[in-house]
Design a protein that fits this description.
alpha+beta; 21 helices; 5-stranded antiparallel β-sheet; elongated
Length: about 675
């Protein structure tokens, strides 16, 4: 609704209320006037009419009864109508009609004396108190019709003459119109002035309300800005501590990677002081004869293209000593979105590189490292899910804090203060003061707001409790995996699926991924290593989720299915995501192979090794890109016997494990 329309409606409402109040006051006066006219009419008929109609001989006349009955009917009808419809517009027209009929009755009782006709003009003046010019037209019409009828059929009653006068009523009507011509504009002018006063009052109230809202909004903005400033200041102080005490070298450069600032760690690693390195190109990096030129060229291209990069390269300290340096360079976008600066984080990795050169890593160590990397991915997924839930916890806590900050309790305090202020005259305050009249309704609104706030806080606390319980469930699953590593125990397929979904629940819900469960009945039971199986299944679910997000399908769906096949329990994880190229099916489980941009190629490799360790196998199928993928884990019902058989076979087989495609296109 526009501001002008709202102001107009407020003005109309205020004017209507004031005019109705004025009409009620005039109605009270008119009711007393009707009673007074009735009594005066009786007295007039009793003492004056006999002298007029009969002469100087005085006796009780029939007009006395006319004044009692007709006058009483007129006054009673008007009073009853005003009490029944006190604020209706037609009530004013009823009053105008009745008052003119009273003038006609008094003219009749006086025998048509010209002096009594002045009652008509006095009545018009009284009716103008309503400030409604339309009722003056009604009064004019009534008196004109009365004078016309009586002037034609009973001229003695209207004009005091016996001769018929069919046109004399026009003269009287013109004199009435003459007065109305002056009274009507006055009524319109007074009515317009009242409306203009209401409009000015409305504008003042709207202006005050607008100023109050702006002050309130500005206050909120200032509080929010101060809070944000305090947070940013605290963050800056923490970042300053990190930059000062970290063992890494931190440098901030311009868009061409020329150094603008370095921390103390840079001096500790390279030996250069800050004033010696400011302005140096390529974030202060020092190359030499042992520096790889290809790596150096790649760094320069990334800087020219304003791209981030991570690399490891030989650099040189101030004293000329070479050392291995890990460099992480990230662009800092400006207001226009383009990279205006870079931040470089460098660390001395000489000891690590030398250790890697000196140590020979056996195949089993590679397998163990792969398994640890796979578990790291699982742990990362678990921590990611916990982080998502903590975001929800933070949102709920913020909403609760906001509810208490903006609580309607402040409004209730204002109301109680107002009650205390008028405690001694509270009844009069409620009845006569406009603020007091609004107070009960205001208290109802405040109580409703408090109830709504209570309901909202209850909902947020309920969500907060659920999220905390979910975090406990995820941690419990992770603890179970850690405690049961290498332990052979009886497992139920449905329990494993439930633990996997618990660990990934928040991430799946966040990305609106539909999960379909098709669990075998009866529930398959096996004896195996719970740690290994959960590691495999969680990794498969995470991969399926990443495939769905990369594909961007409109209805991302994941299928988790269990069934029994001979002496194995089968677990299937399928999705309608990116799918796998036919050429990649033969390499999908190889160490270091990955199709992800930020992948390491450890997850599926370590999962395949874990499947082998529990005596089972992991297979993958896909019809190609865009068709999704299916991974099936087969676990023996008795993992102890399968592991014994595998160990015996490994003692006699010196060949490494290979992954080969089956005839159906399935990779195992």
């Amino acid at each position: 609704m526009s501001e002008t329309r709202r102001t107009t409606e407020s003005t109309d409402t205020l004017f209507k209320a004031r005019y109705q109040k004025e009409c009620l006051r005039v109605n009270g006066f008119i009711q007393w006037l009707m009673v007074a006219q009735w009594l005066a009419g009786i007295a007039f008929a009793a003492f004056y009419s006999p002298l007029t109609w009969i002469g100087n001989h005085f006796e009780l006349h029939v007009h006395v009864w006319a004044s009692i009955l007709i006058g009483g009917s007129l006054s009673g009808f008007a009073i009853l109508w005003l009490r029944t419809y006190p604020t209706a517009a037609h009530s004013r027209h009823v009053v105008a009609t009745t008052q003119m009929l009273w003038s006609a009755l008094l003219i009749h009782l006086s025998g048509g004396r010209i002096e009594t006709h002045f009652h008509v003009f006095a009545s018009l003046a009284i009716l103008s108190i309503y400030r409604d010019w339309t009722i003056l037209i009604t009064a004019t019409a009534v008196i004109a019709v009365d004078h016309f009828v009586r002037g034609v059929f009973y001229p003695l009653s209207a004009f005091g003459i016996v001769t018929e006068s069919p046109y004399r009523w026009i003269e009287h009507a013109l004199w009435v119109l003459f007065e109305v011509a002056f009274l009507a504009p006055g009524c319109r002018r007074l009515r317009k002035e009242i409306r203009e006063l209401c409009a000015r009052q409305t504008e003042i109230e709207e202006a005050k309300r607008s100023v109050d809202l702006k002050v309130e909004e500005r206050t909120k903005d200032l509080v929010k800005a101060n809070l944000l400033l305090a947070i940013k200041t605290a963050e800056a102080e923490k970042l300053a501590l990190v930059a000062k005490y970290t063992d890494n070298a931190v440098a901030i450069t311009d868009g061409d990677a020329n150094v603008e600032w370095v921390n103390e760690g840079y001096t500790r690693i390279t030996g250069f002081e800050s004033d010696e390195i400011i302005g140096a190109p390529e974030s202060g990096f020092r190359s030499g004869e042992q520096t790889c030129p290809q790596t150096l060229s790649s760094m320069r291209r990334a800087i020219e293209d304003k791209q981030a990069f991570n690399t490891e390269i030989i650099s040189y300290r101030k004293n000329g000593t070479p050392f291995w340096l890990a460099i992480e360079l990230r662009p800092i976008p400006g207001t226009d979105g383009t990279a205006q600066r870079f931040i470089s984080i460098q660390s001395d990795i000489t000891d690590r590189v030398e250790a890697e050169r000196q140590n020979k890593v056996l195949q089993q160590e590679i397998v163990d490292a792969s398994r640890q990397a796979g578990m790291a991915e699982v742990a990362t997924g678990v921590l990611h899910n916990v982080g998502n839930i903590l975001n929800s916890v933070n949102v709920s806590a913020s909403i609760i804090q906001k509810q208490f900050s903006n609580s309607a309790l402040q409004n209730l305090e204002k109301a109680t203060h107002l009650i205390s202020e008028y405690e001694s005259s509270f009844a009069d305050f409620i009845q006569n003061d406009s603020r007091g009249q609004k107070l009960p309704k205001y208290l109802v609104v405040v109580s409703q707001s408090l109830r709504h706030e209570q309901a909202s806080v209850d909902r947020e606390l309920s969500d907060l409790t659920k999220n905390i319980e979910h975090i406990k469930e995820i941690i419990a699953v992770q603890q179970t995996m850690a405690k049961t590593s290498g332990l052979q125990q009886e497992l139920h397929a449905s329990d494993l699926i439930r633990d996997v979904l618990t660990a990934n629940k928040e991430s799946l819900n966040k990305h609106a991924i539909k999960v379909i469960e098709e669990l075998a009945a009866p529930d398959p039971t096996m004896v195996s290593d719970k740690h290994r199986i959960l590691q495999i299944l969680i990794n498969l679910v995470c991969n399926a989720k990443d495939s769905l997000l990369e594909a961007g399908v409109p209805d991302p769906t994941m299928l988790l299915r269990t069934w029994t096949e001979h002496d194995h329990v089968c677990f299937e994880v399928a999705d309608n995501g990116v799918g796998i190229q036919a050429d990649n099916l033969n390499k999908i489980f190889q160490h270091g192979f990955t199709t992800k941009i930020h992948g390491h190629g450890f997850g599926l490799h370590s999962s395949a090794n874990a499947a082998t360790e529990v005596g089972g196998r992991l297979s993958a199928t896909s019809a190609g890109i865009g068709t999704g993928a299916q991974f099936v884990l087969r676990v023996p019902l008795d993992g102890r016997a399968a592991c014994d058989k595998r160990d015996h076979h490994e003692e006699r087989d010196d060949h490494p494990t290979k992954w080969i495609p089956s005839e159906s296109g399935e990779t195992t």
